[in-house]
Amino acid sequence: MTSPACIFCKIIKGDIPSFKLFESDKVFAFLDIQPLSRGHALVIPKFHGAKLTDIPDEYLTELLPVAKKIAQATGAEDFNVLQNNGRAAHQLVDHVHFHVIPKPNEKEGLG
Ligand code: 5GP
Ligand code: ZN
């Protein structure tokens, strides 16, 4: 279920440090190291697979509720949830991840 060479598997195991936001038996969430805005988070399954199509449904179904809670916790009214699959789709890390990217509006200030 994990891949020794995978950065995100190492983060799940704690071998690479991260700013952890949430953890359950199937899901791990942490801040992106190169945030596109303040609070940019990544939500990942504790199951190694590069693409959405590689992950069992029982893991996938837990990812969106966590993404939703993190989006709410940022307080941002506007946000993106993104999930890239494959190089042509701009995926750099081959372990499924949902980006949660707050998009502060003018009222909320800068990201
Ligand atoms: P992708 O382009 O694959 O959808 O996005 C991968 C994301 O993972 C990027 O936003 C990148 O900043 C983030 N990332 C890559 N390596 C690390 C790391 O070691 N720690 C953290 N926290 N984020 C990482
Ligand atoms: Zn992995």
Q: Can you describe what's shown?
A:
It is a single chain. With 111 residues, the chain is α+β, with helices and mostly antiparallel strands. It has a single domain (7-102), classed as HIT family, subunit A (2-Layer Sandwich), CATH 3.30.428. The protein is 23% helix and 21% strand. It is built from two helices and five strands, in the order αβββαββ. The protein has helices spanning 7-13, 57-74, and strands at residues 20-23, 27-31, 41-45, 79-82, 98-102. A five-stranded antiparallel sheet has the order 1-2-3-5-4, with helices on one face. A hairpin with a 3-residue loop joins strand 1 and strand 2 (27-31). The structure holds guanosine-5'-monophosphate and zinc ion. Keywords: Hydrolase, Magnesium, Nucleotide-binding. This is Adenosine 5'-monophosphoramidase HNT1.
